[in-house]
Specification:
The chain has about 425 residues and is mainly alpha-helical. The chain has 13 helices and 4 strands.
């Protein structure tokens, strides 16, 4: 009963903060950064935002690999100021961060699509598909490895990849700093968020983006309410699906461990590539180790119902197909000529169709978008907020906004 009361209190406080945040007007010519922490965070005497969540009442990690519900959270990132978080929000949705002002971070990580997109592989500024799909950003504060192949160990380092990859946002450090420094509103906002910095830097840009991303917390789904003691939050079928999910037969929870539904480790599962796509060596390149050939980071299942298609190259169109893959037998999809060290959790559970359906039904209960941040209505750059990936695969179309190129940077579109 006490846990249920605390859950209601936390949810109420979060909702009131959302209302306050969304009712905070901003002037098109005067961007004032929020001095309040996002929902689910508390501002300390030091002026920084610290996470507050029901899972912090638990101190046991026992049985996490067996699907235990009341287990503690792993280490996480917090401690950013409200101003840094809010600056990161503006930067995240601003196409000015890309070389030609055509894409923002939010183009491939869209809030209404689980902070992913609905593409098998995302599209960069060239109009071509990149190598892998866009993973969700929910709960990245709890991760210590980033990208599908785990090649980055921090969110700051991860941000440099898309920003400066010629096939993604295509920018350079020099051009990015020059662009943002030429925008008076951003100059003022960076001074507020980073009062000890003498000038705008790439380091401060990545810190702000990190601050915003670590505020993307999704831990109040119906599953979470069930885990905290309110068992009426799930239907009878959903509870059956949960029990199959964490059983020794299905073994789903041994990699997709609650409460984050990932262990953030590398696993070789033998996922097939879509037709015509060459074999992706994955984490073998990161660690220079053959045992990781074809290995990828175990993704979180939080908001999984919002992030189709699935797997690193988007080869599985829906949750039924993705779940069924694990039931078809160990290594059944390994390409001819490849020898992969399939993860030992992958075996042949021989689940019945009805049991697969129950797992899929349970996965729907992991949806929680209650703390989705507000999309900016306008941006310091003057560019439109891009909340969808307008570049269409295989058509080589790009939507390039000329307004900023012609007035701020003076550079021509390429």
């Amino acid at each position: 009963m006490r846990l249920l009361f605390l859950t209601i209190v936390v949810a109420f406080l979060a909702s009131t903060q959302v209302v306050a945040q969304n009712n905070n007007p901003s002037n098109k010519t005067d961007f004032v950064l929020s001095t309040q922490c996002p929902p689910s965070f508390e501002k300390t005497n030091a002026g920084v935002c610290e996470l507050r969540n029901m899972y912090q009442f638990y101190n046991s990690v026992q049985n996490r690999g067996l699907g235990g519900t009341q287990t503690s959270l792993p280490k996480y990132r917090d401690g950013f100021t409200p101003e840094q978080i809010d600056l990161g929000r503006y930067l995240f949705f601003d196409p000015a961060l890309s070389k030609d002002n055509s894409l923002s971070c939010g183009s491939c990580h869209q809030p209404d699509k689980g902070f992913s997109d609905d593409l098998d592989r995302s599209v960069g500024i060239t109009g071509e598909k990149v190598a892998r799909s866009a993973p969700t950003l929910w709960n990245v504060a709890f991760l210590d490895k980033f990208f599908w192949d785990a090649r980055s160990n921090s969110l700051e380092e991860q941000a440099l990849g898309p920003l400066f990859d010629p096939n993604e946002m295509g920018n350079t450090p020099e051009h990015l700093v020059k662009t943002l420094s030429s925008i008076e509103q951003y100059q003022q906002m960076f001074k507020v968020a980073f009062p000890n910095s003498s000038r705008l830097t790439v380091e401060d840009i990545t810190i702000a983006l990190t601050a915003f991303q670590t505020s993307l917390i999704s831990l109040n789904s119906r599953y979470d309410q069930y885990a905290h003691g309110y068992h009426q939050a799930l239907s009878e079928n959903e509870i059956k699906g949960l029990n199959i999910f964490r059983s020794f037969v299905a073994r789903c929870a041994e990699c997709h461990q609650p409460p984050l539904f990932t262990n953030n480790q590398i696993a070789v599962i033998g996922t097939p590539e879509p037709e015509g796509i060459p074999f992706d060596v994955g984490a073998e390149k990161t660690f220079n180790n053959k045992k990781n050939r074809g290995g990828f980071k175990v993704p979180t299942l939080r908001n999984i119902a919002k992030t189709a298609p699935y797997m690193h190259s988007g080869g599985m169109k829906d949750l039924r197909e993705a779940t069924e893959f694990y039931n078809k037998g160990r290594g059944h999809a390994i390409p001819e000529g490849e020898e992969l060290l399939i993860h030992w959790h992958i075996w042949e559970p021989n689940l019945q169709d009805a049991e697969i359906d129950l797992i899929v039904e349970f996965l729907q209960t992991l949806t929680d978008e209650s703390l989705t941040p507000q999309l900016p209505t306008h941006l310091p750059s003057g560019l439109p907020v891009i909340d969808a990936n307008y570049a269409k695969a295989n058509k080589k179309e790009k939507i390039i906004t000329n307004k900023y190129n012609n007035t701020a940077s003076g550079e021509e579109d390429e």
